[in-house]
Amino acid sequence: MSNAVSALQGAVAPGEVTVREGGLQGMITLRGDLSHAKLKSACKAVTGAAFPAVGQATMNGDNALAWMSPDEILILVPHTDTAAAIAKIDKALKGQHYLAENLSDARALIFVEGTYSREVMAKLAPVDLHPSTFQPGDFRRTRLGQVAAAFWMKDDDTFAVICFRSVADYTFKSLAAAAKGGAVGHF
Amino acid sequence: MLTLNCPYCGVNADETDLHGEGEAHLKRHGPGSSDDEFHDYLFQRQNPKGVHFERWRHIYGCGKFFHAARCTATLQVFGTYSAQTLEPPQAIKDTITAARPGWSWGDFS
Ligand SMILES: [Zn+2]
């Protein structure tokens, strides 16, 4: 068994807004009928987080559930717990039409932390990030610069960003450059 | 810049979050159709100045296809709706009628 390493091995770009790679993170893609009671309870069982509404991410510590599409949920659990969580889902949804796949090592998790993190994100994403429309718990799939990404607000000053592993370096450097550029003072 | 509301996510998606997928409500002509029908299905497209119906895909978002009704001349968006339908919902048609009385497009008016 090889040792898993995260895409950027914990890289940090410190500053008033710090960009930090989140390291190894278990991520499970679950596709199926999101209205199904067994699917919902399986999601809750493996994360301890409430089942998310459309466009939302729900958190329980570092565990999370995120609404990816009308038939897809992203499940975040500790990296070492991923296989056990999938086994639990497989057991709960046996006989149903669904797919649960471990995508932990196909992706990277990056945190953007600091007072003007909202503006750092707004520089790269075509999303209205005004406080009146985007708040902690809101989740969005979009693009950051030239690559696909998803993000949600963990709290008032922290965004969690997920992108494909192959573009982790681009995403990290784009975020770090946007952070270094300073606050815009728009929000 | 065109902004369309994804009927699945409920978000106002910027044009750069989306991918245009061509004319809406095409009727497929496959095996068993005449050469003319198949030719028209493949190549004949409407290119109106005014009311138009299109398919779009929320490619950087949920990945789903949806329909949009808009004006090609002004970029006014009359509405977006599910891909799982063969014709525009009445509410969309009513919105268009209010803005463009007497409009018609394909079999719809
Ligand atoms: Zn969408």
Keywords:
heterodimer, A: 187 residues, alpha+beta, six-stranded antiparallel sheet, five-stranded antiparallel sheet, 11 strands, B: 109 residues, Folate-binding fold, 2 helices, binds zinc ion
Question: Which ranges of chain A are low-confidence, i.e. pLDDT below 50, for 5 or more consecutive residues?
Answer: none
Largest sheet composition of chain B? 4 strands, antiparallel
Mean pLDDT level of chain A: 97
* Secondary structure: helix percent of chain A: 10-25%
**What number of domains of chain A?**
1
- From the spread of the alpha carbons, the general shape of chain A counts as globular
CATH architecture of chain A: 2-Layer Sandwich
CATH class of chain B: Alpha Beta
Write a structural description.
The complex is a heterodimer of chains A (187) and B (109). With 187 residues, chain A is α+β, with helices and mostly antiparallel strands. Helices cover 23% and strands 34% of the residues of chain A. In chain A, the strands form 2 sheets. Chain A has a 6-stranded antiparallel beta sheet, covered by helices on one side. In chain A, strands 4-5-6-3-7 form a 5-stranded antiparallel beta sheet, covered by helices on one side. In chain A, helix 1 (37-47) packs antiparallel against helix 2 and helix 3 (117-124) packs across helix 4 (168-180). The longest helix of chain A is centred in the last third of the chain and has 13 residues, at 168-180. In chain B, 17% of the residues lie in helices and 28% in strands. Chain B has a single domain, classed as Folate-binding superfamily (Folate-binding fold, 2-Layer Sandwich), CATH 3.30.2270.10. Chain B has helices at residues 35-43, 90-99, and strands spanning 3-5, 12-14, 19-23, 51-57, 65-71, 77-82. The mean pLDDT of chain B is 96. Chain B has 2 helices and 6 strands; from the N terminus they run E-E-E-H-E-E-E-H. In chain B, the strands form 2 sheets. A 4-stranded antiparallel beta sheet of chain B has the order 3-4-5-6. In chain B, strands 1-2 form a two-stranded antiparallel ribbon. The A-B interface holds A 54-55, 68-70, 72, 126-128, 140-143, 148 and B 8-14, 16-17, 60-64. Zinc ion binds at residues 6, 8-9, 58, 61-62, 64 of chain B.
